[in-house]
Write a structure and sequence with these properties.
The complex is a heterodimer of chains A (279) and B (221). Chain A has 279 residues and is α/β, with parallel strands linked by helices. Chain A has a domain of 66 residues. Chain A is built from ten helices and twelve strands. Helix content of chain B is 80%, strand content 0%. The termini of chain B are far apart. Classes of the chains: A alpha/beta (279), B mainly alpha (221). The structure holds adenosine-5'-triphosphate and magnesium ion.
């Protein structure tokens, strides 16, 4: 399935050599090629082809059980595809090349590839035994090898961005759901991934807390550099933030396009029904 | 009247003289059990089937044979078959430690299973290595809830130390036995050994309860 990009990806900063920028633009940030996924005998994804450009924001929508989470988890290396390939910046995620052949990736390769990818989960998954600040500095220190001071500065900057610089020394148990999720966002951002998966990050929240989290994500999206895969049930949010909306159902991508087209002028029967039902 | 306070008083110092051996055997045996139990618990989750099978086989074997038989094997058979010989005390401590490591492995396992799946996934998403995931994320959450159960095993190990008498370790029970064969008065020495065990067990149990209380307080904070 070909992907036409209606919106151009965010322009690169001026300091980058234009020829390099042009070359990079042709390599997608993420590329799923004929990806299938089964759990036991149940095939839940039947051959996904999907590309994301650098900096592109895509929203993934679709009915429950259609495989949206699975799609994101495979990018975060939490579930591995049954067949097909995923590339990140032109490099295979789940495979390595050995003597011209693709072989399953080892832990070292996955570790290297994961530096480009981040994820925010539906249930936050904060580390309950660490204060907010340590939740955010732990990986920069232990994984990226930053000094404590450097990690602290970065973490504080991120926590300020999500509006939580006052909660540095608090344990997660003391935070509201919306605050927890904002810490989780800061924790993922501090690793500076090039693409980040947001899996229904507001669906475990009380309705009055959804806004503050979406607001933060919008701000991050506006900064532009990071590609974002927004798996969501919030259609208004998808419309506002996404460059492109991908509608999946029954383990296939049924329709995709710019938000206006998807929401105003849906082509497929499935999408029309889906949109009618959620209104 | 069989009981003589005077006689009891005279043998008490002889028993207290070796209480250190009992306590050290408890401490070292328990430390080995904790350490090796952790190794078993972690290896028991290996993605390699051979390792999992080996670990589970070891656990089943050790749990389903009596500690006394294991001690005899380590002390009398192993030196002959493998030429390894250790002091009675070292052998006893290792025997106790290995035996209870299989129980502690089970305790750790329940603690580890109590950590949410999402914690592993967050660790993966943040690119933590396997080792760091264990040491920084999983174990710090898995262990606090099981500390009271671990404390109870400390008491169990303590109460099993008289078995070391069977392999010639001079701990409280063997000392009592020696006294009895010297003086032919069994009541006082054996009663005193019982009382000493009771007192120390109760002390340890009180410590465990205190720990439990502190844990509960910390959780509600
Ligand atoms: N670990 C698993 N084992 C077995 N089946 C699974 C597993 N994870 C997901 N599935 C199944 O795969 C299908 C797709 O699940 P997935 O969570 O990706 O859907 P989703 O689109 O994210 O749904 P929702 O909108 O409810 O979050 C479902 O039928 C689900 O039951
Ligand atoms: Mg989902």
């Amino acid at each position: 399935m070909g992907t036409t990009m209606e919106k151009q990806p965010q322009t690169a900063p001026e300091t980058v050599d234009p020829t390099v920028a042009a070359a990079e633009a042709t390599v997608p940030m993420v590329k799923y090629t004929d990806v299938k996924k089964s759990f036991g005998d149940l095939e839940v994804l039947h051959g996904i082809n999907l590309e994301m450009a650098a900096g592109e924001k895509i929203a993934i929508i679709g009915p429950s059980g259609s495989g949206k989470t699975t799609l994101g988890r495979m990018l975060m290396t939490l579930d591995h595809p049954t067949s097909g390939t995923i590339e990140v910046e032109g490099e295979h995620l789940w495979h390595m090349e050995r003597k011209g052949k693709l072989v399953p990736a080892n832990e070292k390769h996955l570790h290297m590839m994961r530096t480009k990818i981040g994820m925010v989960f539906q249930h936050f998954n904060l580390f309950p035994h660490m204060k907010v600040i340590n939740n955010v500095t732990e990986a920069p220190v232990k994984v990226l090898g930053l000094s404590k001071e450097e990690a602290h500065d970065r973490a504080v900057e991120m926590l300020r961005k999500v509006g939580l610089e006052e909660k540095l020394d608090v344990y997660p148990a003391k935070l509201s759901g919306g605050q927890k999720q904002r810490v989780a966002i800061a924790r993922a951002l501090v690793m500076r991934p090039k693409v980040m998966v947001f899996d229904e990050v507001t669906s475990a929240l009380d309705p009055e807390l959804v806004g503050e989290v979406l607001e933060v994500i919008k701000e991050i999206a506006d900064e532009g550099e990071m590609a974002m895969m927004l798996i969501t049930h919030e259609m208004d949010f998808a419309r506002e933030v996404a460059d492109r909306v991908v509608f999946g159902a029954d383990g296939l991508i049924v329709e995709q396009g710019p938000p206006e087209q998807i929401f105003e002028n849906p082509q497929s029967e499935r999408l029309q029904t889906f949109l009618r039902r959620i209104k | 009247m069989i009981w003589s306070w005077e006689y009891a008083w005279s043998v008490l110092p002889l028993l207290l003289d070796v209480i250190g051996t009992t306590l050290l055997a408890t401490l070292f045996g328990f430390l080995i059990a904790c350490t090796f139990g952790m190794v078993l618990a972690v290896l028991g989750r290996s993605r390699f089937r051979v390792i999992r099978w080996t670990v589970n086989g070891f656990i089943e074997f050790v749990r389903n044979t009596p500690l006394l038989v294991q001690l005899f094997f380590l002390f009398y058979a192993l030196p002959l078959s493998l030429g390894i010989s250790m002091s009675a005390f070292t052998t006893g401590v290792i025997g106790l430690g290995l035996h209870y490591s299989t129980y502690l492995a089970e305790v750790y396992r329940s603690g580890i299973n109590g950590v949410e799946k999402g914690q592993w996934e967050a660790a993966r998403a943040l690119n933590f290595s396997k080792q760091r995931t264990w040491t920084r994320i999983i174990l710090p959450q898995a262990i606090p809830p099981i500390l009271p159960i671990m404390g109870n095993y400390l008491i169990v190990v303590f109460k099993e130390t008289p078995l070391l008498a069977a392999i010639t370790v001079m701990e409280m029970l063997s000392r009592a036995k020696n006294i009895v064969s010297r003086d032919w008065r069994p009541t006082e020495p054996y009663t005193l050994v019982g009382i000493l065990f009771l007192v120390i067990s109760l002390l340890l149990a009180a410590l465990v309860s205190l720990l439990e209380y502190k844990m509960a307080q910390r959780q509600s904070k």
